[in-house]
Amino acid sequence: MALATRNHPKPTLEGARAVLAATQRRAEELRAPMDLAVVDDGGQLLAFERMDGAKPSSIVIAIVKAQAVALRRGPTGPAMAGDQVNLPLTLGLAIAYPDGQTPIRDGVPLLVAGEVVGAIGASAGAEDQDVDEARAGAAALVNA
């Protein structure tokens, strides 16, 4: 019987920065500046960036999106084309204040060998822009 897990992959700061850079490139392509947050699998912030022109009001939203995914170990929000079927809406729950939780959508997991090792949240644009940009960032880690 195993008493501890071994060889559990974790994102590094360099990996988090690569995710942010890929997300920012996609945001620039879409001309939709974002607040971007990368967290580890426990929802702890690894890296954050607010692009020029991004809404300050979306800072906390980006962080909570990423936390929701990390804590649930999967994407949050409605199923997108080509994604999961028969899941009209999944809300992630992330601790947003000591006595409660806030439902939030559109976070994207960071995967290594099929295991959720963290997450990215992007916020400040339209819902489809947020998730598109976050997916571009997540792909940077998968393709590394």
Q: Would you kindly provide a written description of the structure presented here, covering whatever features stand out?
A:
The protein is α+β, with helices and mostly antiparallel strands. The chain has one domain: Haem-degrading domain (Beta-Lactamase). The chain has helices at residues 13-30, 59-72, 127-142; strands at 35-40, 45-50, 92-97, 100-104, 108-112, 115-123. A four-stranded antiparallel sheet has the order 2-1-6-5. Strands 3-4 form a two-stranded antiparallel sheet. α1 (13-30) crosses α3 (127-142). The termini are far apart.
List its salient traits:
Beta-Lactamase, four-stranded antiparallel beta sheet, two-stranded antiparallel sheet
How far apart, in Å, are the first and last alpha carbons? 33 Å
Please estimate the helix content.
25-40%
Q: Walk across the major sheet and give the strand order.
A: 2-1-6-5
CATH architecture: 2-Layer Sandwich
Annotated CATH topology: Beta-Lactamase
Assigned CATH class:
Alpha Beta
SS-derived structural category? alpha+beta
Q: What is the N-to-C succession of helices and strands?
A: HEEHEEEEH
Q: Can you tell me the overall shape?
A: globular
Q: Give the helix tally.
A: 3
Question: What's the structural domain tally?
Answer: 1
Helix/strand layout:
Layout: H1 13-30, E1 35-40, E2 45-50, H2 59-72, E3 92-97, E4 100-104, E5 108-112, E6 115-123, H3 127-142
Antiparallel strand pairs: 1-2, 1-6, 3-4, 5-6
Concise summary:
With 144 residues, the chain is α+β, with helices and mostly antiparallel strands. The protein has helices at residues 13-30, 59-72, 127-142, and strands at 35-40, 45-50, 92-97, 100-104, 108-112, 115-123.
